[in-house]
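Colleagues,

For the teaching module next term, I've prepared a clean inverse folding example: a structure given as C-alpha cells, and then the sequence designed for it. I'd like students to try predicting residues themselves before seeing the answer, so please don't circulate the second half yet.
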C-alpha cells in the first residue's frame, strides 16, 4: 500500500499545480470594441458574460487598460477576445487581441 500512496500523492500535487493555470485560461471573453479613449486609457467593450467578475450576462461597459499600448492593437468595430479583472482602480482589461 505504501508504494501506491507515493505516486498517488505526486499525481494529486501535480494536478493542484496545474489547476490554476487551466482555470486562468478560461477567463477569455468575446467582445466588440465600441469606443477607444487613449488619453484616459479606457476602452468601451460590448461583451458576453464575464464569469470571473461575477457578470452572468453580457453588456456594454467601459474598462481601464493596464498598458495603453494595448489600445493601439485594436480599432472601433473590431471583434476581440479579452481578459479582465477587478483591480484597485476598477474593471481593468489585462489582455486583449483581435478575435480569430
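(Answer key — instructors only)
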Amino acid at each position: 500500500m505504501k508504494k501506491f500512496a507515493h505516486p498517488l500523492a505526486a499525481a494529486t500535487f501535480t494536478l493542484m499545480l496545474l489547476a490554476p493555470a487551466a482555470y486562468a485560461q478560461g477567463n477569455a471573453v468575446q467582445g466588440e470594441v465600441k469606443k477607444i479613449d487613449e488619453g484616459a486609457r479606457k476602452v468601451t467593450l460590448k461583451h458576453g458574460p464575464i464569469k470571473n467578475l461575477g457578470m452572468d450576462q453580457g453588456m456594454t461597459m467601459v474598462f481601464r487598460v493596464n498598458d495603453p499600448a494595448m489600445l493601439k492593437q485594436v480599432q472601433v468595430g473590431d471583434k476581440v477576445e479579452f481578459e479582465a479583472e477587478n483591480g484597485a482602480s476598477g474593471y481593468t482589461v489585462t489582455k486583449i487581441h483581435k478575435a480569430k
